[in-house]
Amino acid sequence: MSKQDNFRKQVKSIYSILVVSFIMVLLIGALGVMYMIDPSVFSYKKDTPDSKVVNVSPENDDRDKIENGIHLRTGLKDGEGLMTVVNNCTNCHSAQLVIQNRMNQERWVETIRWMQKTQNLWDLGPNEKVIVNYLVTNYPPKSKGRREALTNIEWYPLNE
Question: I need a labelling partner for 4 at 20 to 30 A (CA). Which of 21, 31, 51, 63 fits?
Fold first, then answer.
């Protein structure tokens, strides 16, 4: 075998490697384009159920049901302005946060101002008065005071 034949063999093998590499790059590129167009093409789950739109009629809608004076979805007390509070307050936080914070009118207004200043709460407009009235009526501050005096206690002497 001459040097020239050996050189041709080497060039031919390098050429074959380059052609195979080029085909691989094209194939990977085509698969990448397919994935960008529709990622579900590469999904293994083909037997997923179709989603259904459920039409809930107002008479069967239990989201705003009230039992024993309590709004079931939120746990808030029923009263004038309840739905205004639900629609404006529970968009950002749980109703439990409202229930646990019992304040007077001044403190509720201060809290609303704080939320507007620091938490991006929108301007409540005329709803603010309705909300504050509902909160003051249903969640006023509790007077805590001192505990009752201890009675009927059997004291024992401490040994030093």
Answer: 21
Rounded CA separation 130/88 (Å): 11
Phi, psi of 37 (to 5 degrees): -75, -45
Q: Residue 108 belongs to what H/E stretch?
A: helix 105-118
Q: What digits encode the pLDDT tens for the residues 86-131?
A: 999 988 898 998 888 889 999 999 999 999 999 989 999 999 999 9
Q: What CATH architecture is 64-138?
A: Orthogonal Bundle (1.10)
**What predicted TM-score, i.e. pTM, was given to this entire model?**
0.53
Kindly list the domain boundaries of the chain, sorted by start residue: 3-42, 64-138
Conformation bin of residue 13: beta by default, left when phi > 0, alpha when psi is -120 to 50: alpha
Count, in order, helices (H) and strands (E) of the chain: 5, 2
**Distance of alpha carbon 104 from the chain centroid:** 30
- Per residue in 36-64, pLDDT tens? 888 887 777 655 556 666 665 656 567 78
- Cα distances from 160 to residues 13, 156, 157, in angstroms, run 99, 13, 9
